[in-house]
TrEMBL record:
Membrane topology listed for this record: Multi-pass membrane protein
Pfam families according to UniProt: LGT
Top-level enzyme category: transferase
Function: Catalyzes the transfer of the diacylglyceryl group from phosphatidylglycerol to the sulfhydryl group of the N-terminal cysteine of a prolipoprotein, the first step in the formation of mature lipoproteins.
Gene this chain is encoded by: lgt
Keywords from the UniProt entry: Cell membrane, Glycosyltransferase, Membrane, Transferase, Transmembrane, Transmembrane helix
Stated name of the protein: Phosphatidylglycerol--prolipoprotein diacylglyceryl transferase
Subcellular compartments: Cell membrane
Alphabetized GO MF terms: glycosyltransferase activity
Amino acid sequence: MALDFSTLPLAFQFTSPGPILVRIGPLTIRWYGLLIATAVLIGVMLSQYLAKRRHVNPELLSDLFFWLLIGAIPGARLYYVFFEWPKYASTPEKIFAIWEGGIAIHGAIIGGVLAALIFAKLKQVSFWQLADLVAPSLILGQAIGRWGNFFNSEAFGDPTDLPWKLYIPPERRPLEYVNFDYFHPTFLYESLWDLMVFALLITLFFRSLSGKPRLKVGTLFLVYWPAYSLGRLWIEGFRTDSLMLGPLRMAQVVSCLGILLGLFGLAWLYLLKRPLPDVIPSSKGDGEMRQ
């Protein structure tokens, strides 16, 4: 029996109102920037709350987020520009136009991890303890930030006639799809997936407070990698604008590495029962999460 989707509510058909939220004189406020700022603010508050529950100084997380921004935002942009260099070679002034879109979460994570390692070393605290406290905020921030792609009419998938579909203006469509109106809303797929990963991480965090199970330091961040990467792996297959390295979609390559590294780290912790390498002596950084 064929299914007829034509009578379903049009609410499933997404249409961006445009990238600009409001203009006030020379000041332009864009949805993308507002969403990033909102994600950062919520992330700081959530990480501080989780830190309190683990009896970690919440001010440490405030200081850490400043470092994360210094590492993550340039990392996200440089990663994107590197793989899209032919587009920017003739217009280098556009390299810094981050408000127009064009950032990569994997670049942000790489930059953020490097910044967090330096921060942890300087403060003489466990990198993995910090990573566990930030992991839920990170995935929640990704869920919020994906809606910036919606407002910019970017990062969409192949053409589709499904009832959940995204209208893309003609000027934003790839040349080969110029005659198609509706596309897979991959921003929505990833946002919903990220929310599920957030629910998993936050559930593990609070269950560990009662010791069921009692998590070892580094567990949440290691769970984040395969949990997020599994979703990104299949969602990326829909995308029409993937960052490429030859015939390979880089997001899928990095996702595969993330799955392997996350599973290896969990096996290291729970099968080999060894603490993760850290920036401080193991006597300070290993063991179970603090109560």
